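Reply to thread "Modeling small-molecule complexes from scratch"

Following up on the discussion above, here's a worked example others can learn from. I took a protein sequence and the SMILES for zinc ion and predicted the complex. Inputs first:
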Amino acid sequence: MDQNFFITIRFYEELNDFLKNHPLKRDIIHKFTGRRSVKDLIECFGVPHTEVELILVQGEPVDFSYTVQNNDRISVFPMFERLNIKGVSPLRESPLRESRFVLDVHLGKLARDLRMLGFDTDYKRFRDDSELVGISSLENRILLTRDRQLLMRKIVTHGFIIRSDDPKIQLREVLDRLDLREEIKPFTRCLICNGRIDELTNENESYSDFMKIVPPNVQIWAREYTYCPLCLKVFWKGSHYESLMKRIRQIRDL
Ligand SMILES: [Zn+2]
């Protein structure tokens, strides 16, 4: 017969957002049957493992594969929580150096905003879950989604749940969570295809071809041009530019 296990578990800070039918921010006494990894145990409470940065059992850090023992006392801390846990957490080898993203199909507006701020953001309107998970894993991209089931897949190591359905608040969630305001580089990514925007000068061998796209009345006054090497669009600082800059300043101050 399978053994019964009694454990005490506590979730910290925003991990409580995921708990349903359990007391929040308090010790939870939990009974289950049969051997189980701490990853599975945490996820049976509705908390995706990608949201978790640190797990302590009797005060000692463990990794996701740890097999839960009877009477264990488990503390679970959120990802990117601003506690100083450097050097303690064994869950991931190292944080991602550059914040790169892949977004699920429901987050189109957020994708556009992230590109506007210069973040490498992979997004397409049609993609299935396996594709999203694969891209996240192979390209080390942080998977942003509103679907917590998606983040429960073991292969996903970096990802988090977008709580809000309002794109403006979604953007703030990402900037806050990853502390990204200092890394904002406006107009360095193409809003349409995520290509890296480059300067367009007359040294470019296709300069004259590119300039054919620019309306003559713009060429009269515009001096600086940029272009996207992937989708071959040309940009200049028109009135649209000023309103985007204003939005970016507002975002920085959010
Ligand atoms: Zn482009």
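What I'd highlight from this example: Residues 225 and 236 are 5 Å apart (CA to CA). The radius of gyration is 23 Å. Questions welcome below.
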